[in-house]
Amino acid sequence: MYKEVTRRRFLELAGLAGTTAGCYQWIAPTEEAQTRTTWDYRAWEDFYRRQFTWDKVVSGSHASTCIGQCAIDVFVKDGVILRAEQSGRYPVRVANTPDIGPRGCQKGLIAYEEHYRPDRILYPLKRVGERGERKWQRISWDQALTEIADKLIDIIEESGPGAIRATISGGGAGGSVGYTALQRFSSLLGTVGDYPGDIGGDGDNVPGQPLTFGRPVDTLFLQSGLSVESWFHCKYIMTWCQNYVVTRIPDVSMIYHSRYNGGKVVHVGPNLSPTARMADLWLPARIGSDAALALGMLNVIIGEGLHDVPYIREQTDLTHLVRTDNKKLLRESDIRRGGKDDGFYVWDLESRRPVPVDESTLDLGSVVPALEGAFEIEDAGGQRLTVRPAFESLRGRLAEWPLERCAEACGLHAETIRAVARELASAPSAMIVTGWNIGKWYHALNLDRLLNLLLAVTGNIGKPHSGRHCISGSGVSPLRNFMALHPGKPTPTMSAHGWYWFAGDHRSRAESYYNDDREGFRSKTGYDPDEMHKRYEAAIEQGWQDAPPALPRAWLGAMNLFRNQKGGPTHFKDTFLRKLDLFVVNDVRMSSTAAYADYLLPGAFYYERPDVVFSENFTAVTAMSEAMPPPGEAKTYWQYFRELSKKISERAQARGYPEYIDEAFTDQNGNPVIRDLANLHRDFTANGELETDEQVADAFLAAAPATENLTYKELAEQGFTIPQTGAPDFIAGEAYTPYRPQVEKKVPYPTYSGRQTYYVDHEWFLEFGEELPTHKPPLSNDKYPIYFNSGHTRVGVHSTFRTNVWMQRLQRGGPYVYLSPVDMRQRAIADGDMVRIYNNIGETECMAKIDPGLPSGMLYQYHGFEPYQFKGWRNKQAVLTTSMNPLELVNGWGHLKAPHDPSEKPGITMSPNCKTHDVTVEVEKI
Amino acid sequence: MTQDVEMPAAGDSIAEAYMFLARAFAYPSRGFIDLLGSAEGARGLSGLLASLPFELAWSDELERSSPWEDLEAEYIAKLDIGNQQTPPCSLHEGVIRPNVTRVETFTDLLRCYDYFGIKLGKSPRRYPDYLGVQLEFMAFLGHRVTHVEQDGGDSVPLRRAQRDFLERHLLSWIPLLNEKIEQTVRESFYGSLSRLLLRFLERHHEYLAESATDPILRKDETCHDSSFCSWNGTGAPSL
Q1: Which of the residues A86, A204, A463, A893 could staple to A436 if both were Cys, CB 3.0 to 4.6 A apart?
Q2: Average pLDDT, stretch A148-163?
Q3: Which of B27, B44, B148 sits opposite A37 (nearest CB)?
Q4: Where are the strands (E) in A588-670, listed by range?
């Protein structure tokens, strides 16, 4: 006998009264299990005697920024994924090409386990301590959204929506539905957003592509490339500053295979990287000297007459006449009163007179443009002018860079350069593969344009299996789909790099770094460090770039900001965060950025939500599926923004603040844009038509020809689809090569003159002597002798998977840096020693690892480590800074359109790119 | 107000204790924690433990030692989500146990749950190795014991299943969890609770052996699957 009432009362108070079947919180017994009276369990082996069956096998993929977007079959039992396999169902899309399937990599195969991370965010958390202290309180979604909505309305009322930045990356929230959520929210509310396709925040823009080719062929990113089938069929592949063996695991086999198809692979890079090891020839150009190598090759090709004259005449602007008096392109307005400012001329060798460039076609007809010579003409005022084809200017540029000088600059033997140049010029097809590396150099524009030029003078752009490959080569882009779901309201747009230059105090950090070596800086740029910012202000004044619309007050992001932004958490907590009233992070895990959040909201991960992703090198559109429900109270990114929109509407109505009149923008009638807060939810969901993730995925697929014949459900059932249509130059069943219509059908490029653009007579380009590309040394601080170089790792996609236990077992598990044996010996550093890496703006510590393949004066750290893996959270960003190349700020010249340019003419807006590779450091043993 | 009444069925009282422990380790609610720290709560818990069919010596108090805000923050940081990468006292078997992968743990658990007709709850969703799921599964078996016995059936298979589950899972990681909580968590409530959990599991395991008429449940015939059963009968896991 015992005291029953006390016990019962206790159970009642504890909410446990009546603890019989049906009261469980975490389990759900079946009806049969709850009524059964006979059980035959003998021992645990009984569990294994039963045939194991899967509840379902679902095709999924990942919205990470790895761009592989491989289809993975995941095997589900009771809503839990226990196994993953690469899909073996990819077809051979192009005849006579090897089977690319199964695509995937080790990260894709452990992605399902990443869903079970012990630090998975399960419910909304509110900060109750200092930022970064990681002292949290669990709150309901309703409380979180109410408080966030109220704060956002406060900010809009006081500072306008331009004080809010909403942003996203690929960690968990990415994908088409995820980006659509961000785009709709940002556009309707008027928060600061990125330019479409801009990825400059991380230095991933490849600036020479929009400059040379105009808007690339319908790609998402401002880049273009060739599909993997072209890689296989190409006969001469140069992997340049690219580590494809590590970074493009699902697709790199096509480069391997090309060597069994008569192809040759040449790698250019300062270190013996995994990609260098698989090449037929490795050219270890000195770090930062690649442009000199390219100039040397051009010297050989043109000097020996190996260039493709008909191609150059037809496809490039190198025939355009340039005035010798001011280096400006000759325009119609120069020689005829009232003439056009954008009408250009060539010298026709047949008629021996200047002939206007035909903007409607690349077909030269009977015109034979001169590539060489100087010609006298009369200007509109009757004065004599001397003009020369831009090709002559190129010869002049090459004369400044004779082969020997180039060889000395890049550290390669002149005869090696000569041999490679001859091979490239004589190859039946050739491509240069670059990635997101070259854009991170201050002088990226020079190198990028030179690589384009190398292929242009050899006639290797727009021909099958030839051209520049810059990341995105599927020929099918989601950009059209995105634009179709854009609500159409203008919003302030800034490159992420530009925005953080102001908001994140990158400017002062860059000036601090470079002011330490002002003379060196001046000798490399011709101006002082503070001129970078002055140029930015000048570009804003000219209308070439948007200004930050307001001081930042709120940041709503689904990304690991402090991992990727220069300076890292130690810089950002003292600068950026101090400005913010609201710092909201949506994530699946406790990242280094999440740790600083005011509100931390749980997101659904890759296999927990429907979405659509596009492979960038292989032509496939792949479904992400809800193979299992998200844990705890996690929501999809769409659900999160939908509910936030709803809450803003409710609170705006309740507070009697239904709208904000946004004077910064005008509608079609010239009236200020109304930010309709009270109806934000209605507009966000398109009157209820876009409520669920599936509905958004359906609308997204229906929005463009490449995907319009599929519903999301159909796509999810089949896993992926191989589009039969895409960019204008996409040909179903053929390997994708951009710019074929230009070569085959003489369709002009969407550029200033309709040709590939190599000569830029913008005043800033002329001022810096970069009207044609050249070589300039990296913008280092010469007080520190070692370049800090970094790239993507094979054991993570940025910081995603980087702390996964399996991925950590494939490397040292913690941060490390590769050093050259020479540098280690000089500093008495042994393999495995802890080292301090420092310069005048910061320091970071990690383990040293010897790499005999590294040259002296360069260290290498695979990126993506979480700041919290380092002492004091000082990751590599603690020693890195960015800079600002004024030439990447230039718009309002030809096809480089100013932001919000209302004209219908084709064009693209250049935006500044984050620069880090120029930074130098010193290393010492701790 | 108390009065002496008849004991509840053994299976139910054990199930109640499992349900109580599942509730106590879930995200803390202030009302519940304060109740446990009150005299009424202490009496109630004492009554709950007294109703068990086996003796469980327990004198600790389940009183919180820190302000509510700190307790909540520490629960999040140490037991539930963590500050970075892994909470030191994760309430997931697959995170705490060495030498067995998370997915292997999931697979074994799902096979077991599936055998007994158990699905994971849909909302809120937790993974199969979550402590609350495992404790509720044991409670379910307890309820079934009562149900079967009241129906005149044979409850030995169910008690056998409880014994095996304790050995293959709960007793293979709770000692380690208890150790980590003792070492890491400042809030004394969780130290006490963790000791209570471990003590209860051990006593339940002993009870299953002691009370068995079925030779299979004899103490010397424990589960010997080396891949999963790291419990060695001493209260400490084999590592």
Answers
A1: A204
A2: 97
A3: B148
A4: 599-602, 608-614, 621-626, 659-666
